[in-house]
Design a protein that fits this description.
With about 500 residues, this protein is mostly helical. Helices cover about 45% and strands about 10% of the residues. It binds one RNA strand of 77 nucleotides through helix 4, strand 4, strand 6, strand 7 and helix 6.
Length: about 500
Amino acid sequence: MRSSPIAGTSPIRVRIAPSPTGPLHIGTARTALFNFLFARHHQGTFILRLEDTDQARGSLAFEKDILDGLHTLGITWDEGPAVSGEEARGPHAPYRQMERLPLYAEAASDLLARDLVYPCYCLPDQLDADRKLAEAEHRPPRYVGRCANFTPEERKVREAASLAAALRFRVPENTLVGFDDLIRGHVEINTDALGGDFVLVRGDGSPLYHFTVVVDDVEMEISHVIRGEDHLSNTPKHILLFRAMGHEPPVFAHLPLILNPDRTKMSKRKSQTAVGDYLAQGFIREALVNYLALLGWSTGSEDEILGMDELIRRFDLDHVHQAGAVFDRERLEWLNGQWVRRLDPDELVDRLRPFLEADAVAGRIDRMPPDGQIRALVPLVRERLPTLGAITDQVGFLFVDHVAIDPAMLVPKRWDAATALDGLAAAREVIADVGRVSFEADELEPLLRSLAERRGWKAGDLFMAIRVAVTGRTATPPLFDTLVALGYEQALHRMDRAIGVLRAAASATAT
RNA sequence: GCCCCCAUCGUCUAGAGGCCUAGGACGCCACCCUUUCAAGGUGGAGAUCACCGGUUCGAAUCCGGUUGGGGGUACCA
């Protein structure tokens, strides 16, 4: 039973609230995308809030990775934190939780004044012992409430002993908390399953996730919380807090999880999870966005190549799935190829350049081709790039000073070494002749074909020998275009070298 | 353990009681195209709709149970 996608009449405000404890995760990107699409589709507001209260694990480098990654994917926010000189955007600034501490302190003292929350002096060791005991007795772990009913005097004694007090929220007993999830339908959880009174503020005064998320969602007037299903069981805690603070909870929508191949929650251990890594390998943003949108959502039709505008136009929450989806890299690669082929040629040059530059720096190629040369290669490579990073794999041989040639590969299956030598020498002369006038694919092909015909060779065999001679490989873009891309001088030079290699190998076997 | 969620080809999915002899896509296999590799085209294999029971003239679709899987259960987010 699903409620209408948009409950109430208040303006739509959604958020992505990443925690900078790691690089931008595929799952975070997908959640961000769904929130973004939902906001854009309904002319709502999309907010980025940094949940950086875990100072031990968080870092600025991760924060930058997350922001940059979202930006690269085209997931832009209407309200968000100050970044690198730029001021925070939006009426609810700041958007970084560590800069919002006074808000949490204020909310906490209010709850404390109303006795909805109480100081807890339990030590971590005690809590651990409680948990272990519960486990041994096969009881669900739950806070025993040791500090729940101290008198003011009892508290004073502990404070005098300068015991650090965490703040715990009083969870009502045996109460059903229900909500209508836009994706799951009606969900009901008994408060007894919540593990007892939970901590809102650490002993050192720093606020915890369950607390900050609610304070901020209230203050930022979030209308819809669209997040991963891993938060479903936590939702009653949040609802209790919303009510304690005198607010109706927002509408919830819990997305299915993205899964490892073994169907567990996608994790770094078992999958590549960093968006940056996919980008670095040459998956392009259009493909990533298209793929992520289709993980757990569908148009309801059979269309699947969808750009951002199209996604915004068609996105809705009621076509979101309930079951988790395995991340399938092969399908991503296919989609990436689809989008690479759709790129404007000049745009493709721009996107290819950084990959070639990186490979030049890494020494995988000896020189960086000028833009004109990359542009000329576009028709040859665009159908052969599952990722942009594959460019050097495809045509790197054009930009190296020496290609390593395996003499065995120079001899096609139907040929022997002598034929190969003969064929390469004859082809060398044909190529040399053509080049004296002009060096065009259209001219090379018929002449080399007729050479093969005259000598009774299969054209494919001759072409393969030449291919290996000039590229060192058996799989390349079309041969004649490749020869032209190589240039007359270089093509002849490589033919001569290959002939030399073959001769040397032949005499070595002879002796 | 307890609580919650989920369940259609290997994978992503279409499917809102008769349109389903369960459709599409990725991957796989063949063939066509072809100088190799791709791309493209055509075709194929691949799902007793997890299982059992019910409701109904009729169920992949509704209900109940079972099984299986996942998530949550922190002074992490």
